[in-house]
Structures are given as C-alpha cells and as structure tokens.
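User: Fold this, then the next.

Assistant: Folding the first:
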Amino acid sequence: MLNQHFIDMCGQKSVIRELFMYGRERAAEIGYENVFDYSLGNPSVAPPESFTKEMIRLLNECEPVSLHGYSPTLGIDSAREAVAKSLNDRFDMQYEKKDIFMVSGAAGAIAHSVRAVTKPGDEVITFAPFFPEYRPYIEATGATLKIVPADINNFQINFDAFIDMINDKVMAVLINTPNNPSGIVYSTETIDKLAMILTEKEEEFGHPIYIISDEPYREIVFEGVDSPFVAAHYNNTITCYSFSKSLSLPGERIGYIAVNPACGDSELLVDMFGQISRGIGHNCPPSIIQLAVSKCLYETSDLSVYETNKNILYTELSKIGYEIVEPGGTFYMFPKALEDDAVAFCNKAKELDLIIVPSNSFGVDGHFRISYCIPTEKVERSIAAFQKLADMYL
C-alpha cells in the first residue's frame, strides 16, 4: 500500500514552487520581461570566476576515476580541513576537520542535525517568520515543530512567547539569520539573550539544548548591519551552511555542518551524521564540487546587486505606502499586505503579472514575501505594478 503521509503531502505542495511555475508559464505566454516574478530565492548572479576555473582545472588535470569516485563518508578530508580553517580565520574559532561534515546543502544539513539531537516525541522550536520547508524537515524525524509567534515590529525574537513555550521536551532551537523571509539579521544582543536563556534551561532540564543555526545567507549582509557568528556566542551550536547563495551554486547542492568544538559531543555528532546518511540516502555530495568550493572559501559571487535592489524596493514601496521592516541582509523583504487576507492580496498582484508570495506558510498573517534576486532594471520597472496594486486599496 502507498504511504499515506506522502500522499497527503502531495496536497500540500510548496506555495513558492507553485508560484514559480506559474511565473514560468506566464512568461512563456507574454514574455519574460513582462512578468515581475518575485517568488523563488534563486540567485541572479554568476558564481565567482575562480570556481569555474577550479572546476576546469580539476577536469583537465586530475585522474578521472579518482576525481569522480565516492568521497569518504564524512566528506573529503582536504575540503573539511579547508572549511575548518576558513571558519577559524574569519570568526576566531577553533574548528578542526573532525568538527566538519560535508553535506548536500543547508536542507541536508538541517535534516541530519535534527535527527542527531532528537528522537520521536521531542520538540524543536523555531521563530516566525520561518522557511516553510522546516515543517517536512522536522516532522519526518518524528520530532514536533513548535512555532514562536513573530514580533512583527522588528522580526527579532519574541522572547516572552519563547520563554512560555520552552519545556524539557525541547532538544533544539532552529534559527535562521539572516532570515528568510524577513531579511532581518539577529543582532548580537538577540543572540546573547537567546544563549543566556538556553544555558539556564539546560541547567534546569539537565540536558543539552542545541541551536541549529541555518546560515545560507551569512554572506549577504548589508552595510553597517550587526551580524554575529552564532557559534561564537553559544557552545552547543550546530551550524548548517550552504554555498547556494554565497557562491550562487544552488543547483550543485553543496554545504557543510560545523559542530562547535566547544560542544562536548562534537566529534560524536559528526560521526553520527555519517550514519544518519545511511538511513536517508544522503551518501555524500559530489566529490568534484567539494574540491572546487574548498578553493573558494574566502570569496563570494558579486552580491552587491542584492543591496542595490533592496534599497530601490524599500525606498519606493515605502513612498507608495507599504509598511516594511527594512532588511539587513538576504535578498528578501516581508512587507505588510494592504489587506488582512494575504492570499487574496497576492492573487490581485498576479492580475498585474506581479508574483509575490503570501505570508501564511511562513507562520505570519497579513504579509507577503518579495524575493528580489532579479535584474535591477526589472526591479525598477516593477515599481509601477506595485503602485497599481496599492491604488486598489489606498
């Protein structure tokens, strides 16, 4: 008999992906230039030239059988060593190869991390607004995802609600900073307060509470914004990273897990990740991609276009009358919709070939997400559509 759980999931497909597919179909009808598709967080800039050159070098110079063979269970040693060194150099940490696990992007990193630190019946807390795919990542483990309501005034952590929610079943707190969908970066003050609360609760409950820090947007932080490295503020931090955004490689599915070496179970956790791979069919990301990114750890794609696009949208939409908490990073913003029903609002936007994502699946009502990783000229032309949408209400 077919698995009913996954049959049910077929009726709960990603709203983001469905809007993206609608945008592609609409573009085929009326032309790409006429559809303002702000649905999917797909980077709009090329990888750095150094990545392309390293891929070519590897293909030209390395023995093919070895180059394309399986990597070790925990990842290629030289890649793990390079990741550890880059984190130490950049954030004054003490990682070693044994603290690093190479993985297929941040999604795979979260899937491994939650399985390692929870058992069925345990709880994981996250903070709204949150990436909708956290639900299947966590529910597939048998753990329960608990959502702390958003503080819509600034999208920092709603600590009063968090303290009311935390209990001895909570084994992990999943955070995402810089944040998808709000674009907000948790401040040092926020991270220090979270660390203090968790340290107190660990002592009260008698077990570790891990921060699982989802950081694919770590390098997309705008000028003057306070952006702490979470693991430097809390020992029991498991950092989940993807090169999808920093190097513009979403299709290559490459990232890593870094377990803070100050965590008492660091080496055991990394060994566990290798065994978890056996159960979920992960079996290591591509060898050539591990080798190539390990040579690009101190650079990024040209990410400046995202701040340019943010500045245009934040300035112009605010003038029109949209209420927005200004993003500190990523390529997302999360304005208030001009009516309570975010889905209805976004459907009206579709009539103008303006594709934006309603906030419901992010755990917040009455907002919408803009993913502004599109050409700047298109951002500029889209302002007229946002004005027409506002004219229906204001």
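Now the next one, as you asked:
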Amino acid sequence: MSPGLKSFPPAPIPNPDPVVKATVLAQALPYMRRYAGHTLVVKYGGHAMADGTPDDPFARDVVLLKQVGINPIVVHGGGPQIAHMLKRLGIETRIVDGLRVTDRETMEVVEMVLAGTINKQLVSAINAEGGCAIGLTGKDGGLIEANKLVRTRIGGGIRTEIDLGFVGEPKRIASGVLDTFKQSDIIPVIAPIGVGGSGETYNINADTVAGAVAAAVKATRLLLLTDVAGVLDADKKLISELTVARARQLIGEGVINGGMIPKVETCLEAVEGGVEAAVIVDGRVPHAILLELFTEGAGTLIRAE
C-alpha cells in the first residue's frame, strides 16, 4: 500500500465466486498496466451523483486508480444542487444557452455549493474509502485563470451581446499546481470556479474546466461522467468510438444535438489540445470508471484521426 493511503476495512461484497473474482482481476491487468503512471481527468457531473451527493462506488473507483499507479484528477459539477439551493433561497434562476446567468448574489451561492458543500463531500467520500483527497478551486494557487464569457446572438442582422454576469471561461490552467500532486498520493478534487485578472470570481462550466485541465496536463484520458450512456446514432444506439472528423460530421448532420453538442465539443477541444482520447460515459452506472478503463469500454470514445 502506498504510504499516503489509509487502511480501511473493505466494503461488504455479496459473496462473489472467488474464481470469477480472480478471473476479473486477471483480465483487468493489461488495462492497469496500460494506464499505470498516466494522468486521467474525470469530470463527475452533478446529474451523475446519487441523490445529489457523491456515491461510494465513484469514490472507491478513484481510490483504486491511485492505488494501481494511475494519477486521477477529479473535476466536479453541481448544477442541480445549485438550482436547488437557489430555489430554497428564493433567488430567481435564468438560463441562456445552457449557462446560468450569474449575478453577484447568485455567484455567492454557486461558490458556497460548489466549493463549500459538494467539493468537501466528494473529498470526504474519497478519504473515507482510503484515499488522500485535497479540495481545490481555481482560486487556489491561481489554478484557473478565467476571462468573462459573453454570448452573442444575431437577429434581423443585428448582433447583440448577452451579459451572463460572473460566468467565465478558462484562460490559463496553472498545470504546475497539479504537477505537485502527481508524484504523491494526493488526489486533487477541483470545483469549477475561476479567478479573473482583477480577482473577481467566475462560475465556469465543469465540462469546460475538465477539458481545459486535461489539455493542460496532457492527460491520457478525459472521462466525462454524465447522465446519458454516450453519443447515440440516428437509431438511438450507442456509438462506441468516433474520430474528431466523424464527430464534427454528426454535429453538422444534426445527429449530435442539444445538450450533447457542448459535451462533444469539450472532448474535441481536449483531443485537439493533446489529450489522447476523451470519453462520454454514464456516471449513474456503478463503477462506470472501471468499466470504461479496465474492460472493452462503456461509453463513447472520441480520438484523433
């Protein structure tokens, strides 16, 4: 066991056949060797969390990755949890192009939920499974330098800028901050909050942060855990693998549409930024990470040509 990993009693497993168990482990060995020493960025979406809180299988899987010599970096979302808290506080929510318009009052709630609640719940869940997780936001060590994000619309030949408030996009990722964890037993858990040039706080889409982090650290894999199985074809069947060119073609044909477009575009930007491959996978499935990495795959993998 690595020095930083704590010893905890194993979680109860419903009487597996020892031979089946040993066979599964043996079959996973080539995949473990494939990824040993490599960095993986895992985006854990708010929709993928059971009952709005991190689940034990996810935390256990992340600890297992570290245990077998893989370097996981976790980026988490929290959209549903933010919406719930805003509703409780009676703060009106307005969504434009899938992005939450974030005024100063809303930004305070966003930071409270992401950095103060979900991040610490996830860190605690990983630590409870024997890991050593550290919670971060983009403010820590200047990890995520952000620019204000502005959406534009064109109607009737007139171009209109839409002010989203304190919504940002990554300008620079301080990869050196994350490199300090690579040779340690520490698992960084990142809340998607960035900091502007004048110290202002920005709410950033978690998929976008995960893609930017993956590109900055030249990760072997970017895993987007969400609430869908992956990219579906025109017959609603899962597409197991796509090239960058084919993915762009399917977007142009309208096969990839709606909320799947920004997820695929995040994957494309990550791959074009140096990530070996990106995967969209259903995070609601128990042990989705292990199914994707240590078997023949469970979601949609997007790679270069």
